Amino acid sequence: MVQIYARKKALAGAANVLLAGAEKLKTSQNEAVRNRTTLDFHIELLRLRQNWRLKKVSNTIIGDLSYRTAGSKYLQTGTFEVTKAEDDEKASSPPSSPLPSGPTPAKQNSALRVSIPSELQGVAYIEVLCQKDHEDLCSVNINLLGSGPPPPPTQTCIGSKKLEAAQNVLFCKELFNQLAKEAVQLQAPIPHMVVGNQIMATVLPGIQLIIGLCHSTTADKKQQHPSPSKSEHDHVLEHSLHQLLREVHHKNTHHPFPHPATGPLGPSKKRMFAGPMAADRYELLEMTKTDTLLEQIVKQAQHFIMRMRTEYVLDTIAKEVKDPLISSHWNTLNSPTQSCVKINISTHGYDAVCRTPLVIHVGEKSLKCICRDGKVMNMSYEPQELRDLIFCHINQHQILAVQALAKTMGWQALGNSNHLGDDSTGTVEPLGNASSCLMSSPTGDRIIAVRCEPHTGIQVSVAHSPRTDFFPSRLVTERKWEHLGGQFRDVRLDKMEGRNFLHKMELLMASLTSNS
Amino acid sequence: MGVTILTQFPTENRTGPHTIDVLSKRIMALGALQQGQFLVDCETYTSVPQLGPQRTVHVLHNSEQPATVFSLLETGTKTIPLATDGLFDLLMMKMSSFYTSKKQTKAESKGPRYEIGDFCVKLGTVTVSSNFKGILVEVEYRPCVVPAMCWDLLKEFLQGFLGLSGPTNPPAYLQNRMQEIYSPIDTIHQYLEHFTIFRKSPGIGMRA
Amino acid sequence: MSAPGTAMDSLSAALKCNIIPNQEYLLQGSVLDQYVEVLLHRLRGLCDNVDSGPESFHDHELCFTLRAGSGSGAPIVLPLRVRRALDVADAPFQLRYVGQQELGDKNRPTVVRSSIDMACSSTIVEFLTELGCRLDFEYIARGYMFRKGRMKITVSKIFKVAGNKPVETVEPISQSYLVELSVLAPSGQDAIGEDMRIFAEQLRPLVQLEKIDYKRLGSMM
Lengths: 516, 208, 221
Fold this sequence. Notes:
The complex is a heterotrimer of chains A (516), B (208) and C (221).
Chain A (H helix, E strand, L loop, with lengths): L1 H50 L1 E5 L2 E5 L14 E6 H6 L21 E4 L7 E9 L2 H13 L12 H27 L7 E3 L2 E7 L2 E10 L18 H19 L15 H6 L6 H8 L4 H28 L4 E6 L8 E8 L8 E8 L4 E4 L5 E4 L3 H26 L3 E6 L17 E6 L5 E8 L3 E8 L23 E4 L9 H12 L4
Antiparallel strand pairs in A: 1-2, 2-3, 3-4, 5-8, 6-7, 7-8, 9-10, 10-11, 11-12, 12-13, 14-15, 15-16, 16-17, 17-18
Chain B lengths: L2 E7 L6 H14 L3 E15 L8 E7 L6 E6 L4 E6 L3 H7 L4 E3 L5 E10 L2 E10 L2 E11 L5 H16 L9 H4 L8 H17 L8
Antiparallel strand pairs in B: 1-9, 2-3, 2-6, 2-7, 3-4, 4-5, 7-8, 8-9
Chain C lengths: L6 H11 L5 E10 L3 H11 L8 E14 L7 E10 L7 E9 L9 E10 L3 H8 L2 E15 L2 E10 L10 E2 L3 E10 L5 H13 L10 H7 L1
Antiparallel strand pairs in C: 1-5, 1-9, 2-3, 2-6, 3-4, 4-5, 6-7, 7-8, 7-9
Main location (chain C): nucleus
Keywords (chain C): Activator, Nucleus, Transcription, Transcription regulation
Subcellular location (chain C): Nucleus
């Protein structure tokens, strides 16, 4: 009995030891789990700290996602708060956090919680549209309501992504704010309009640039401004806008250093020169002038439209006119407000005989054409002016080419005019003007007249002198009078053989060159 | 910035304002437009005896180059020009124990400024310490920077509205520099030449 | 457009409004050659936008004085400095008058001295010489500059200039770099001194930026 009792006691003692050990293990494991979360928290905080500005204010960790340190002067703050994910479950909103609204994304895998002010939550972008006139605009506005929302930010986004999105919202807001301010202040001939989240500026007559701030929060689904499906959003101009504001930020912080080093900080290099180089008041005034963001983007939009119009005009002419060939070469590199196109007018198979090169500089509201002879033609934004100019040059090209061809065939150019159309030389063309020339065969017995008109095309006439057949009459008694030149007879070019005008002319001249 | 010719216009018993009036009517008749006013002033400082041989510093301002102070230092053997920022005047104050100005020598030329095509015309009433001394006409031809290349044009233009009083020869200061590139300091030299003459001449006696 | 006032009128108006930056707030110190890299790293961390690396400079300074023996007592002396950049070919010359440091409050964190600073044409050296100035000494300063807000920090090595020797063969005067922290401001903006003191604290112990009293330095030697 005593033995059993003793055995029982011994077993109980052993069991106690085991239980105590198990208990110890359990607590230490619990401890480890808790420690890991704090460890995770600290590591994540460290990672966050590497990319974002954080500081400890009493018991909270406050961060700043604004662009203020990068040169922004926008007044809205971009503070956010970092808390432990665990704490959130106990107290749904920390008391000191100013704006912890919006749904808390479920983040089981993150030990950090980042709370962002509600006005910076969601997704924002700047929408830029170029539109033709008011009617288009209205239809787009209607479209706005019907189209679907952009994808909401993913629920699993970690703190950094959320901060990046918020920073983007802040940036877009600053950009839009700045543009709206400028739109109100600028004295444009057609005033800019700012309505709600949209700025409307007239770029060229009948064409508006619309800049909108689209901000959609996941919390407030009614307030969406999704991109309209109909008129396309201009990504290039949007990018330019972002770039322009970043440039402003950069300029705010990157002041030039003085040389020599004792000079004052602040004035630009140009301004430093103004005194000793005796700059006059115009130069000084120019130094103080800078284009506002809106002016710059309007200029870029103007150029964009001008480039598009020029492209369109050149392409349509190239399609319409098969003879001569019109090829245009756009420079691949161009500035946002200036580009350049080189146009070659040539005839297939006769490039070596004659080629008419033109260079067109496309600016913001005007075109400048440098012609073959070095003449500079300035044109407005109306595409018809460019069209007229090109047609005028097509005619001139044909006339010059046929004369150059004549020279190689031994014919003689008697005269030409590029600008017919006054009272002495025929009717005035409704658009552009006609060109003509006169050539004689090597022996002088044949004369060809060519007249190019933008509308009717090319007319070719031939005169023989003397006429091959001669019958004396009472008036013309002798054959020698026939040398004075005879009647011109039209050639039906369309019935002639030949690939193109010059080929036909070559054949015509060859056939008219007498053997004698 | 172009080439500037400065010439004196005789008042011939007329008052200063009247002469300016006559000239401005003539230039307006040619189609010029008034573009504000202009002012060129000159203060002269001489060295104190302790500094050794006497030297003179002329400090001039031209409203056409508002950010610049021009100084001309005359040592007796040569003239050294200097162009600086506006703070040079402050430095001259610091130098007051070395260089002193005679209060009676402050000269200035001021009046209307006209633009006509490529020309800029200024009709200046000259005063020396507030006493009227005469009329200076300044004509600038902007597109050219070499005096020799536009002197004939400028002469013709000047004679066109000054009549026989227009200059027949380039200003003395420019005569050796006709082929050089003209700069704003050359205008300052011309003004100083005229101011020096005006200071020596007896006052006409009429206050402008 | 109204008639332009005389330049002197506008200058005195500017003086009255106290918008001309004519006071220099200055702290100076030095660092040994072997630690200058560490200092530059620290400055890169502390200063504004050094993303493109610190700005280097290479200047030649000529120190003139204009003096006249007055009848009674000590002669009047006006120091004038001309500085030009050797590394920027077309930069204007800089003429500078630096006054005696203000005695003022002992507790002031920085040296405060009047300074008139202007860009000028290259004729300035001849102009000053003919004006009666005497060239006291000249040197070449080469180094880096930084900015933090309105503060300018220069870390420069000073080289002797002997006669007409070419610039490449100059010798350094010591094995250390001169460190200067300065602000040019209109008079009366003493708050800037406090900012400078705080900034200087952050450079310790690499470099001790202090108010250097030249008069006392002179008497120590």
